[in-house]
């Protein structure tokens, strides 16, 4: 239901859902999961969560709806968080909190950028949004920041959270590295594909009269990008 809620909600609902409500769910798991939880529940739950990372990534590779692509990407990242919270070690909990904060900013930024393109093109199809770099070159820089943080480019805060979670999962069970590493590779592929498809190429005939970014839109992007930059420079700010 989560991707459907993301896609059908207005832009404000999508941003709040990705940045706040999903993180409340992760916080609830951290607070409510007892430290002596039965392994009979941990093993199948983590297996489903890590397998879901790959499944949502493969779904993103074939999505043509930009908002649906971002929604499924959000679900895949929260699969890492769910896996880490169930292990209940200090390292895994720290990684889950870091990734939740980083993903909340990144996912909200991507949804906002997607809505800006939708307002100008009246479509969410990626193929109809190509060439936006020529129409809105300043917004392309924010698309690049959001795409690179989404794929956890070093030294962003997203990478710190993912590395902590992947290390914890590997120490818990070495088999999980196959799922998490594959999921990370797929995330990099569809994130770059999303950026290249929407920003590169030639403008369509219907996109010739696209108006540039407005001040309020640039301010929203700055308010997303600035915390990401500050947390990348000093991750201790989360504490």
From TrEMBL:
Keyword list, A-Z: Electron transport, Membrane, Mitochondrion, NAD, Respiratory chain, Translocase, Transmembrane, Transmembrane helix, Transport, Ubiquinone
Enzyme Commission identifier(s): 7.1.1.2
Subcellular localization(s) per the UniProt record: Mitochondrion membrane
Keyword Disulfide bond set for record: no
Main subcellular location of this protein, as a coarse class: mitochondrion
GO terms of molecular function: NADH dehydrogenase (ubiquinone) activity; NADH dehydrogenase activity; ubiquinone binding
Any one biological process term the GO annotation gives: electron transport coupled proton transport
Membrane topology designation: Multi-pass membrane protein
Top EC class for this record: translocase
Domain NADH:quinone oxidoreductase/Mrp antiporter transmembrane: 1-187
An example Gene Ontology CC term for this record: mitochondrial membrane
Catalytic activity: a ubiquinone + NADH + 5 H(+)(in) = a ubiquinol + NAD(+) + 4 H(+)(out)
Highest taxon in the source lineage: Eukaryota
Residue runs in coiled coils: none
Chain segments annotated as transmembrane: 12-30, 42-61, 68-91, 97-118, 139-157, 177-197
InterPro entries named in the record: NADH_UbQ_OxRdtase (IPR003918), ND/Mrp_TM (IPR001750)
Family: Belongs to the complex I subunit 4 family.
UniProt function note: Core subunit of the mitochondrial membrane respiratory chain NADH dehydrogenase (Complex I) that is believed to belong to the minimal assembly required for catalysis. Complex I functions in the transfer of electrons from NADH to the respiratory chain. The immediate electron acceptor for the enzyme is believed to be ubiquinone. Core subunit of the mitochondrial membrane respiratory chain NADH dehydrogenase (Complex I) which catalyzes electron transfer from NADH through the respiratory chain, using ubiquinone as an electron acceptor. Essential for the catalytic activity and assembly of complex I.
Name this polypeptide is given: NADH-ubiquinone oxidoreductase chain 4
Species: Phrynocephalus forsythii
Biological classification of the source: Eukaryota, Metazoa, Chordata, Craniata, Vertebrata
């Amino acid at each position: 239901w989560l991707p459907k809620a993301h896609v059908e909600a207005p832009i404000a609902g999508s941003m709040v859902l990705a940045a706040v409500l999903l993180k409340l769910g992760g916080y609830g798991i951290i607070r409510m999961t007892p430290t002596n939880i039965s392994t009979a529940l941990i093993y199948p739950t983590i297996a489903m969560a890590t397998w879901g990372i790959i499944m949502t990534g493969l779904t993103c590779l074939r999505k043509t709806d930009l908002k649906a692509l971002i929604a499924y990407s959000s679900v895949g990242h929260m699969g890492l968080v769910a896996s880490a919270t169930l292990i209940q070690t200090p390292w895994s909990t720290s990684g889950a909190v870091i990734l939740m904060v980083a993903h909340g900013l990144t996912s909200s930024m991507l949804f906002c950028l997607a809505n800006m393109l939708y307002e100008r093109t009246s479509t969410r199809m990626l193929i109809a949004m190509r060439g936006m770099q020529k129409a809105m070159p300043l917004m392309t820089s924010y698309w690049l920041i959001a795409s690179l943080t989404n794929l956890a480019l070093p030294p962003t805060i997203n990478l710190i959270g993912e590395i902590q979670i992947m290390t914890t999962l590997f120490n818990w069970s070495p088999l999980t590295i196959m799922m998490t590493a594959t999921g990370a590779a797929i995330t990099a592929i569809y994130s770059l594909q999303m950026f290249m498809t929407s920003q590169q190429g030639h403008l369509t005939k219907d996109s010739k009269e696209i108006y540039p970014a407005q001040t309020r839109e640039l301010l929203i992007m700055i308010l997303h990008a600035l915390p990401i930059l500050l947390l990348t420079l000093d991750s201790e700010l989360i504490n």
